[in-house]
Amino acid sequence: SVLTDLAGVELLRARMVAAAAEVLAGQPVTDRSDVRSGDLLDAVIAAVAALLVAFFPTKGPEGFPALTWWEPWVGVLHYVGAIALFAMFAVFALWLFRKTAPGETSVTPDKKRRNTIYLACGLVILGSMAWAGLAGYYGKAIFWPESVALVAFSLSWLVKGSAHRTLRSLV
Fold first, then answer.
1. pLDDT tens readout for residues 87-124
2. Cα diameter, the chain
3. Which of 126, 124, 157 is nearest to 43 (CA)?
4. 3-state secondary structure string, 11-49?
C-alpha cells in the first residue's frame, strides 16, 4: 500500500539523517588517531550528499496531491546528492578501505582477501551507478541498481568493521 511505502521511505530518510548527523558531529570518526584528514573530508561529503538525498525528493509520492513547494530543481538536488553519495561509497570501497596503515610495509594474506572484497564491492557500486543512470535515462525504475549498490557498500563496510570476526567469535 501507499502508506507502507511511505513508512519505509521515512524510515530510510531517518536513518540517513542520523548517519549524516553522526559524521558531521565528528563522532566517532574524529576520536580515532588513525583517521587521516582526507578520510574525514570524504565522510563529510558523503554525509552532506545523504542529507541532499533525504531532504530533496525527486517528486511527491504518487497517489497524493502534488506538493505545493516542489519544483524541478528539488529533484535535481536529489539526483546530485545520490550521485555524490554513491560515488563516495565507491571511493570508500576502492580507495580508503584498501589503504594500509601508516608504517606498515607488508600486506597480510587476510588484508589481501579483504582488499579483494573491497575492490569487488567498489566495482559493483560503479556498475550499479551506470545501471541506474541508464535505467533513469530510459525512464525505468532505479530501485534494483540502487539496492545492489547499497548491499555492495554494506558488505564492504561490514568487512572493514571486522563483522566477520565478531560473528566468528559468537559461533
1. 999 999 999 999 887 778 888 999 999 999 999 999 99
2. 61
3. 157
4. HHHHHHHHHHHHHHCCCCHHHCCCCCHHHHHHHHHHHHH
